[in-house]
From TrEMBL:
Pfam families: Acetyltransf_1. It comes from Marivirga tractuosa (strain ATCC 23168 / DSM 4126 / NBRC 15989 / NCIMB 1408 / VKM B-1430 / H-43) (Microscilla tractuosa). This is Diamine N-acetyltransferase. Belongs to the acetyltransferase family. It comes from the Bacteria. It is an enzyme of class 2 (transferase).
Length: 158
């Protein structure tokens, strides 16, 4: 079955959310997704989009997504950050992930980004091997830091 990689439209967001929820289950966080369709539409298709989105679509349905946004590195300049690359479980191993990643890398190039970065869980061996196979550098020297909304309100107001 062939696949088409294209930029997402608002009508793709319900299926996008399904894939995000599928990823949360795979990553052992089934209750962690709090975003909804309306928020994804507002944040991705409003006046100042917070993210970009490619979809992988077969003749039947959307089988994968690559969601990204831009950030800025004081050392390197503009960076494309790949938040999630998801291919539904039944369609993995068919090259769709590589095609989505190629679209992301082309976008980084067209947007004059010096880096394209992402994260992978240390136990996710299939993804780690996939990224190693394309020559990505896996940096184990950084620790992720997060402050959630209910936490940061208490921090900056103190």
């Amino acid at each position: 079955m062939s696949v088409t990689i294209r930029r997402a439209t608002e009508k793709d967001i319900p299926r996008t959310l399904e894939l995000i929820q599928e990823l949360a289950v795979y990553e052992r966080e089934p209750d962690a997704v709090v975003v909804d369709v309306d928020e994804l539409i507002r944040d991705g298709f409003g006046d100042n989009p917070a993210y970009g989105l490619f979809v992988a679509e077969t003749e039947k349905e959307i089988v994968g997504i690559a969601l990204y946004y831009f950030r800025y590195s004081t050392w390197n300049g503009k960076v494309l950050y790949l938040e999630d690359l998801i291919v539904t479980e039944s369609e993995r191993g068919k090259g769709y992930g590589r095609k989505l990643l190629n679209a992301i890398l082309q976008e980084a190039d067209e947007q004059n980004c010096r880096l394209c970065t992402w994260q992978v869980l240390d136990w996710n061996e299939p993804s780690i091997e996939f990224y190693k196979a394309i020559g990505a550098d896996l940096d184990e020297g950084w620790i992720n830091c997060t402050v959630k909304q209910d936490q940061y309100k208490g921090i900056y107001k103190s």
